[in-house]
Amino acid sequence: MSDKTTTPCSNGQTACDAPTRPCESTLPCKENVGWRRVVRNFTPSWFAVCMGTGIVSILLHNLPYNAAWLQYVSYAFFGLNVILFVTFLGLSIARYTLYPEIWGAMISHPGQSLFLGCFPMAFATIINMMVLCCKQWGDGFIYLAWAFWWIDVCLSVATCITMPFIVMHRHRPGLQNITAALLLPIVPAVVAAASGGIVADALPDRAHAMTTVITSYVLWGIGESFSACVLALYFHRLTIHSIPPKEVIVSVFLPIGPLGQGGFGIQQLGKVAMKLLPESTAFGSLALRGGEILYVLGVFLAIMMWGFALVWLSFALISIATMQSFPFNMGWWGFTFPLGVLATCTSALAENLDSDFFKVSTTILSLSVLLLWVVVAMRTIKLAITGEMFHAPCLKDLRDKSEAAGVWFADQIAAIRLAMRNDEREGDPTKIRAVPRLQQSHPEMDWTNNSSPLRLDSFVDDLVEAWHIHRTPIIFAVLAVLVAARIYLHINVDKTELVALPKLYQEPEKVVIKEKTAVVKAEPEPKKDVKSQGPRRIKGGLAKKPSKPVEVEMDMTRPVLVLVFFSSVTTKTEKLAKEFMKTLEGSIDELASKSGRSFQKPELLDMTEIDFDDYFISPSKVHGDVDQVYLFLIPSYNIDSINDTFLEHLQETHHDFRIDTASLSPLLGYSVFGYGDKENWPTEPEGFCFQAKDIDKWMAKLTGRKRAYPVGMGDMGSDHVERLQEWANGVLEVVEHVARTGNLGEGLPGSGAPDESDVEEEAEDEDDGEVLFDDESNDSKKKNTGQALGDVEDLGAMIRKDDGSTGAPKAPLPIDFTSYGASTKKKTPVRGPKEMVAKNSPTYASLTKQGYAIVGSHSGVKTCRWTKSALRGRGSCYKFSFYGINSHQCMETTPSLSCSNKCVFCWRHGTNPVGTTWRWVVDPPDLIFDGVKLNHYKKIKMLRGMPGVRAERFAEAMQIRHCALSLVGEPIFYPYINEFLEMLHAERISSFLVCNAQHPDQLAALKAVTQLYVSIDAADKESLRRIDRPLHRDFWERFQRCLDILREKRFHHRTVFRLTLVKGFNVDEEIENYARLVEKGLPCFVEIKGVTYCGTSTSSNAGLSMSNVPFYWEVQEFVLALEKRLQEKGLNYGIAAEHAHSCCILLASDRFKVDGKWHTTIDYKKFFDLLEERGVDGDWKPEDYMGEATPEWATWGNGGFDPRDDRVDRKGRKIEAAKVPTKA
């Protein structure tokens, strides 16, 4: 009967899935050929290919013994993985869109449904490589990876919860049929946890990173706990029913996955937690110890899990060996990912334990995974081409169900017709004579049920099936209807008053809308009479506004601390600030007695000596749990100063989406006093105290309108003492009030706002309902608002209509002939880009006093003391000993005097411009090039009369042969640095360029340079913050990106790490961290130099003194220890040269050691020949222009002093040459 009632081939996929249908015996169905067959048979197990490809890319990127070409191979695997993932995702979407009934069949299948866990795990490998490879693309890319990670978390949690429940509720496989594939939907939680640790380590915002770490710990606990349950169940099944059959024998490798990935994840989370916890409020004073405990605990757990995984790996290999042969299927990809994550766990142990054993083990495992990937990929490609890989077992269940349903209904109809012919009860198959035959032909049907075949459960199944088929158009249709209804109601329905939170809108509605409208529509005729009778009547006093309820109750037991911030270029403001502090300290006791609160001693803080992040992202936490008031004493300058950097910081903080808009709202209040010069800037629109006003505006935004007292302004040429006293009295009164009440009191609408508004003026226009509006008063208001409202006045004149529609009579424009000329005599100048170092600025005076020649507006040149020494035959600098550069032919210059750091050992005296972005006038490179040469030659000519100058060297000095771009500032910051370098090289002037590793984009875009330096002043983040005091918030991430870029450039440029040792800052116990940085950047050379003490006030304020200058023997010990550690790490570096007079020693890579001799010098002629022959982007290596062997007198143990010259003491007396003792 079934053959006679078979549905025709045109009936969708049912006929096509039945291999015995007549239609398939003649012509193939369209669903079983071409792309449709691929789509219908594309199972979730294909995402295991992405898992294997992704883990290979990660392993190649993180190999302990790595090379540049391996990095490129890892990038290729990463790109391949992204392409595969996108392709597979598209095929999956097409599968369940074109054939929605397959989804239910797939979920019901006890094997295929478990592979849904492969999707989030494959996605996680892409997220990991995004963070590892693409950090240099900026924070935006990191946050994109973070967003992907949250999607992956949701998918992982969904599969981890739903699929085990479906297995329990629907599949119920029984103990004998349990396989390790049950781990597939659970392990994604562990993988997502490990990815969270990687993403959190790269996030620039600590709050976001902390949230990610906590979430990852939760995911790790979920995944590992669930996996432990399944492993116990699986081991129980193996002990009772032996190893699985050969079709699924590969699944024995799957338990290695949660063990390896769990070990890596708990190590990574502990590592990140150790960094984040000390910077958070978690655990209070135990935060530092808590982070260390989590880190050590993570490593301990990882060792245990690694051992368990090793045992299971052995067990799996033995199980595989017992099988003579087993068929190839998608399960073979189970070899790659579990072994790959075991390798990542091993790699993390190698890094944390610094173990060569784990490094070698990581390399072996990684290469094994790569070979397995190649083998499995080749087999997969071959079978995919033939089509054998496209087979979905779940479709068989769908076919069986469809066939059985068709035959069942056909037989029912036949039985009913037979019953009708025999006059028997219809619809009851148990009382029909044909039932035995039907039971024999279809034993899978339930013939004992006496109910109708159209039962309730069948009806529900049909509804569910119809929903799955048509759910997409139904959902979109409902959404479209809802959106259309919402738009219609928004346009046509009258808006009613809000029931919720009416007080939130009550006050602005009364002031701005209702009362103003009432005024305009009031009887116009009486207003005309009143206006004609006399002047406008003013009533004193202000209508009190209902005070808003206090939402947060202040803790009145906390002490109050007043912090006074000041900036000063000429030290005048500093002196005034110290005098103000004396007055403030004398008033503390009085404030405490009046307010009933305790006060801490106020502190005076110099803006150039503090880290803005510590005080202006959130209130300072240095002083403990206190209520704080910020006061500012700010002079305004039209030159670049710390004020510009501070204003830029406030603006960035306000616009940073990662930081709360009112992040300083916990402050009790703030106030600003500005110093200005009315002789040059007579009025506020012309620039009087403009920076104090700008600071007041941004502080109003960041504090949430907590201006405690108006901006005070004093003229340094006349009344600044009186104005400061008035402002101080008012501030003290407000501080007493806010300390006593916890708030600033009531204020008019607009109080504390960043900018001026007309709200208060409109409120004052009220007078018992009788308010007179005249053009004169309005014009006077607009005049008082300053030049900024000029365009608004013009607009008001344009829209004033002659038909009287404005509600007021037209009046003649008032013109004041007595003040017209005076009011328009001066106009507010348009502020354009400023000069970095203006000629009338203190910076210019300070630099020229120190011997600099300023070129243009931002460049400088100076004669080095070693140039003078070489001219007189008293020795050359270390560059001659190391690289063969004549000091008397060297020009020291910089095209940018601005820097993005405030290093503690800098000799710039605190007056040089600083900034994170270029915001000044840009001089063309030819102007700078010609200017620095001209000024350099001028300074050389000034030395012709100096006693002891050698005539031949003086003649040579008039021909520049080398340019050291290492003066004050940051040369790479100059936008046209490449063009400037080309001009140097065009005249065969070699170039040494030094950067501070804070500008990765400019470093990546740098073209040819003779030798490229990066200053490495610290080995870890906190030390770098203390020593360099960088302005960039993401300074450590920028630093790391620069090291990555330097690593890539090491085969095109001569790259150098310059380590400046500052005793007490970066010498003690820093060897290991420095070795890691060298391992990361792999420079050609490492220069280690002791800091030179300049004896300035700037250094003393930073805590730097002669005690911080290391002795030469201390530098020697440091270099020997660093050399030993590098060699222990397998890095071939050795001591190549020294210059004891400069307290400098050179480590070099073995790339520059030929026949047992170091070749650190440079063949400059060869360099220029290569440059002219192949261009700035030409393909050459540093070894191609390597010079002759380093002279014997410059090698280790010989001191490095030029034997042609005479060394003298401070009084010019000769010093006998002697070897410098060398530390063994």
Automatic annotation (TrEMBL):
An annotated GO BP: transmembrane transport
Record SUPFAM superfamilies: Flavoproteins, Radical SAM enzymes
Entry's localization field: Membrane
Pathway where it operates: tRNA modification; wybutosine-tRNA(Phe) biosynthesis
Catalytic activity field: N(1)-methylguanosine(37) in tRNA(Phe) + pyruvate + S-adenosyl-L-methionine = 4-demethylwyosine(37) in tRNA(Phe) + 5'-deoxyadenosine + L-methionine + CO2 + H2O
Residue ranges annotated for the Radical SAM core domain, each copy included: 883-1132
Compositionally biased tracts (Acidic residues): 755-777
Cellular-component GO terms for this entry: membrane
Domain Flavodoxin-like: start-end pairs: 562-732
The EC number(s) this enzyme carries: 4.1.3.44
A Gene Ontology molecular function term of the record: 4 iron, 4 sulfur cluster binding
TM stretches of this protein: 45-63, 75-94, 114-134, 141-166, 178-200, 212-235, 293-318, 330-350, 362-381, 474-491
Top-tier EC class: lyase
Membrane topology summary: Multi-pass membrane protein
InterPro entries to which the protein is assigned, alphabetical: Aldolase_TIM, Flavodoxin/NO_synth, Flavoprotein-like_sf, rSAM, rSAM_sf, SLAC1/Mae1/Ssu1/TehA, tRNA_wybutosine-synth, tRNA_wybutosine-synthase
Cofactors demanded by this protein: [4Fe-4S] cluster
Region annotation (Disordered) ranges: 1-20, 524-546, 742-789, 1196-1224
Biased composition (Basic and acidic residues): 1202-1217
Keyword Endoplasmic reticulum on entry: no
Comp. bias (Polar residues): 1-14
PROSITE patterns for this protein: FLAVODOXIN_LIKE, RADICAL_SAM
Protein task: Sulphite efflux pump required for the secretion of sulphite as a reducing agent. In the presence of sulphite, cystine in keratin is directly cleaved to cysteine and S-sulphocysteine, and thereby, reduced proteins become accessible to hydrolysis by a variety of secreted endo- and exoproteases. Excretion of sulphite mediated by an efflux pump also represents a detoxification pathway for dermatophytes during infection of the epidermal stratum corneum, hair and nails, which are rich in cysteine.
Similarity section: Belongs to the TYW1 family.
Protein name in UniProt: Sulfite efflux pump SSU1
